[in-house]
Write a structure and sequence with these properties.
Blueprint: E1 25-28, E2 34-37, H1 39-45, H2 74-82, E3 91-92, E4 108-109, E5 112-113, E6 119-122, E7 132-135, E8 143-144, E9 158-159, E10 171-174, E11 188-191, E12 221-222, E13 228-229, H3 234-240, E14 248-254, E15 257-262, H4 263-267
Parallel strand pairs: 3-6
Antiparallel strand pairs: 1-2, 4-5, 6-7, 7-8, 9-10, 10-11, 12-13, 14-15
């Protein structure tokens, strides 16, 4: 049997005509009837100001942002802001280590004996894709620390190892960006701290390929082989200012004063 058509009857209070455009709202006018209103008009009718911002409680985001205008999760923000430093790093490596068994509890790194769950900054791997922060197991292979096992948790991170002969209290940071784990070479650099000294006696420190700028108030510095070095003074400054002239010599015209004389001038 054919289902009979049912006529839909518009309630008396609803608008009797079609909306003027898509996106209009049916809004109570306050006079006992309803009317179609545009978004702008409906906002005023509903008492929603243009400057108001809606508030949401505990919105769950399923993925990390991929666009500069996207919202971010708490874990993502923590990794960027709260996690600028890796905390409680126990020691740093000073040579390549075998990650399959070289970071077990009881092993020694930089004169420090590892304990299970220690955190080790691995920074000297021959395969630099392996560099990063690792957790020490009782035995077996070490794994990346929970707060350092994604690219965003490694890029730009800083740490200061707490133990070791060479790495203790030194400041390291990751200088590699756009990391793809297992593919990108991950590099760490050391920030050399500046220290003021009132005496050069006993001054030591530094490693290979590190250079320091020493400024001394003394007039004469004696080298390790007994060589004596002339301090910078007015005479040296004036002498250094002379330019090169072919077939010439330097004439002392007064104390700490010099000038270039060519051979032709000397013969005159």
């Amino acid at each position: 049997p054919t289902t009979p058509a049912v006529a839909f009857k518009t309630p008396d209070k609803l608008p009797k005509v079609a909306p003027a455009s898509d996106g209009q709202f049916i809004v109570a006018t306050g006079t006992g009837v309803f009317a179609y209103e545009s978004t702008t008009v409906a906002r005023t009718s509903l008492g929603v100001g243009e400057g108001d911002t809606p508030e949401f409680n505990q919105v769950t985001l399923g993925v990390d942002p991929t666009n500069v205008d996207h919202s971010v999760t708490k874990s993502y923000a923590d990794a960027l802001v709260g996690g600028a430093f890796w905390e409680d790093v126990d020691v740093g490596t000073v040579a390549d280590v075998d990650l399959s068994n070289g970071l077990e509890a009881g092993d020694t790194i930089d004169d420090y004996t590892l304990v299970e769950n220690d955190r080790v900054l691995v920074k000297e791997q021959t395969d630099q894709t392996e560099n990063g922060l690792y957790t020490v197991p009782a035995s077996g292979a070490a794994s990346r620390a929970d707060d350092a096992n994604t690219a965003i948790e490694i890029e730009g991170k800083k740490c200061i190892p707490l133990n070791g002969s060479l790495t203790k209290h030194r400041f390291y940071f990751c200088i590699t960006g756009d990391i793809t784990l297992g593919v990108t070479n991950i590099k760490f650099a050391e920030v050399t701290m500046m220290t003021a000294h009132n005496t050069l006696s006993g001054l030591q420190g530094g490693q290979a390929d590190q250079y320091y700028h020493l400024t001394s108030a003394e007039h004469t510095a004696v080298g390790a082989l007994g060589a004596t070095y002339q301090p910078k003074d007015t005479g040296l400054t004036n002498l250094a200012a002379l330019g090169y002239v072919s077939d010439s010599m330097i004439k002392i015209t007064a104390e700490d004063t010099y000038e270039i004389r060519t051979l032709a001038q000397v013969k005159q």
